């Protein structure tokens, strides 16, 4: 299982706690994880990625293992520790605005 | 219990920059219960209820971070469920003018306004930014764009107002389901006579000195339209500057600003039982978006415009610098018409006597974006 940490507003929307766990079939990539998140929590569709283009929304960031993976290819493999469930994939609202 | 034979409730649906609030009272409209915030921390541009089933509510929830969510309640706002948020532009997306005059593809940002059907609980229209009109017939799960509006031949000439290129007003004709009016900042007002398939601009008579051709077919920054159901061919308009009216369904507008101290403003509303009694909240100017002279004054005309009187009883008359946004005023349909509005300072004011006297129901909400009122059986 892949651990995913959601930002506060998406936890409220998905009615879940800080961390969710999703099953990813195949390679553990950003796209694979986000597909699984949207499959299990359909109300999150469109909140992290643009529904049309599939691109990360501008004020959303992806962190894992103390790295900013926001601009990595959605098909690049995520760090091994994320794939093994040792570290979470973190979806973060960018620090901006009020 | 009730002092008359009939118990009547009033429910205000208030959208703010940081959540939704539901304010309820009995028919006396003196004592209010405040419930909220719902969707805390999110921008709630609009909450509106179905006239066909008042406990069916729709709420437009959005955030600069996480985009557009649509919420629905089937129990008057106690419980909510997220419904469909796929607001796709259908067919050719096309381009409109950007602020700098260059072409720019339509890009969805949020839903500004929700207009539920008066007869079918599951039918609701939604007005979007960048300007488009959507319709759902399944209680908000799926949204279909009525493309005839966005693809109007003048579309490439539409340009955003300062608040974005939003479709903010949807008026349904009270008896002819094929006729609707919408307004877009800053394209103007449009009418359909075939249920939304085709649209015509209805801006003749508007003059806007902020655009190169002051009486152009489109390009006017219409802030709000209102009508009384007994006279569906008469529309009232608060334009950027100027209060206007038409008596032929938009064929021709004439200015009725009359003796207003300033005719800039956002909301306009019509009394529930007097079709020539209308309300506006004059704002100092396009560059000073707050009330004039530090005084919060609603202006009422009992003659359909031209002659206006300030309504000040219970409203702050010094050191007040709030604004009232376009969707933040509503009237109820009780025998003695109630009038309500919310401010950028977080106050929601109510009058239970057509505007003669006002009290603040709440004073410290986040900035208010919208106010709707429901009379409950």
The structural domain count of chain B equals 1
Coarse morphology of chain A: globular
Number of helices of chain B: 1
CATH superfamily of chain A: Beta-grasp domain
Helix percent band of chain A:
10-25%
Low-confidence runs of chain A (pLDDT<50, min 5 residues)? none
Tell me about the largest β-sheet of chain B.
4 strands, antiparallel
Q: How many E strands of chain A?
A: 5
Average pLDDT over all residues of chain A: 95
Q: What would you say the CATH architecture of chain A is?
A: Roll
**How helix-rich are the residues of chain B, as a percent range?**
under 10%
What's the structural domain tally of chain A? 1
Briefly note the structural class of the backbone of chain A.
alpha+beta
What spatial form of chain B do the alpha-carbon principal axes imply? globular
Which spans of chain B have pLDDT < 50 for at least 5 consecutive residues? 1-5
In N-to-C order, the SSE pattern of chain A is EHEHEEHE
Radius of gyration of chain A: 12 Å
In percent terms, what proportion of residues of chain A is strand? 15-25%
Question: Which structural class should the secondary elements of chain B be placed in?
Answer: mainly beta
Can you tell me the CATH topology of chain A?
Ubiquitin-like (UB roll)
Secondary-structure map:
The complex is a heterodimer of chains A (98) and B (377).
Chain A lengths: L1 E4 L2 H7 L4 E4 L7 H11 L19 E5 L2 E2 L11 H4 L5 E5 L5
Chain B lengths: L8 E8 L2 E8 L6 E6 L4 E7 L7 E7 L3 E7 L7 E2 L12 E3 L5 E3 L4 E7 L7 E6 L2 E5 L7 E2 L1 H4 L15 E7 L7 E6 L2 E5 L7 E2 L20 E6 L7 E5 L3 E4 L7 E2 L12 E3 L7 E3 L17 E4 L7 E3 L17 E3 L7 E4 L5 E4 L7 E4 L5 E9 L1
Antiparallel strand pairs in B: 1-2, 1-30, 2-3, 4-5, 5-6, 6-7, 8-9, 10-11, 11-12, 12-13, 14-15, 15-16, 16-17, 18-19, 19-20, 20-21, 22-23, 23-24, 24-25, 26-27, 27-28, 28-29
């Amino acid at each position: 299982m892949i651990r995913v940490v959601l930002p506060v507003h998406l936890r409220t929307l998905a009615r879940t706690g800080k961390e969710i766990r999703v099953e990813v079939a195949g390679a553990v990539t950003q796209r694979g994880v986000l597909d699984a998140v949207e499959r299990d929590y359909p109300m999150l569709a469109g909140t992290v990625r643009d529904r049309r283009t599939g691109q990360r929304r501008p004020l959303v960031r992806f962190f894992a293992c103390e790295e900013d993976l926001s601009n990595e290819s959605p098909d690049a493999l995520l760090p091994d520790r994320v794939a093994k469930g040792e570290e979470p994939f973190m979806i973060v609202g960018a620090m901006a605005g009020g | 219990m009730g002092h008359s034979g009939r118990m009547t409730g009033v429910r205000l649906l208030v959208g703010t920059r940081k959540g939704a609030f539901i304010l309820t009272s009995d028919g006396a409209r003196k004592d209010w219960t405040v419930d909220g915030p719902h969707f805390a921390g999110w921008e709630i541009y609009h909450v509106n209820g179905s006239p066909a089933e008042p406990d069916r509510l729709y709420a437009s929830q959005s955030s600069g971070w996480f985009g557009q969510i649509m919420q629905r309640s089937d129990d008057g706002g106690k419980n909510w469920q997220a419904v469909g948020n796929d607001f796709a532009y259908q067919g050719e997306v096309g381009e409109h003018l950007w602020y700098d005059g260059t072409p720019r593809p339509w890009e969805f940002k949020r839903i500004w306004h929700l207009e539920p059907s008066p007869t079918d609980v599951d039918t609701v229209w939604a007005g979007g930014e960048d300007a488009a009109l959507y319709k759902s017939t399944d209680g908000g799960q799926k949204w279909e764009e009525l493309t005839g509006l966005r693809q109007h031949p003048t579309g490439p000439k539409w340009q955003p107002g300062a608040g974005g290129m939003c479709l903010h007003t949807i008026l349904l004709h009270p008896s002819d389901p094929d006729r609707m009016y919408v307004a877009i900042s800053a394209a103007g007002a449009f009418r359909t006579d075939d249920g939304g398939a085709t649209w015509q601009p209805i801006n003749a008579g508007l003059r806007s000195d902020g655009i190169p051709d002051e009486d152009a077919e489109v390009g006017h920054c219409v802030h709000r339209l209102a009508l009384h159901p007994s006279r569906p061919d008469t529309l009232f308009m608060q334009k950027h500057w100027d209060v206007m009216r038409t008596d032929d369904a938009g064929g021709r507008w004439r200015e009725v600003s009359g003796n207003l101290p300033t005719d800039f403003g956002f909301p306009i509303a019509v009394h529930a039982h007097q079709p020539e009694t209308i309300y506006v909240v004059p704002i100092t100017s396009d560059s000073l978006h707050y009330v004039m002279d530090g005084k919060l004054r609603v202006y009422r005309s009992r003659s359909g415009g031209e002659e206006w009187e300030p309504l000040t009883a219970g409203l702050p008359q010094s050191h007040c610098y709030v604004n009232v946004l376009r969707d933040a005023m509503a009237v109820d349909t009780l025998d003695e018409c109630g009038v309500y509005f919310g401010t950028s300072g977080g106050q929601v004011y109510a009058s239970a006597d057509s505007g003669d006297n006002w009290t603040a129901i709440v004073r410290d909400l986040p900035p208010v974006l919208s106010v709707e009122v429901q009379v409950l059986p």
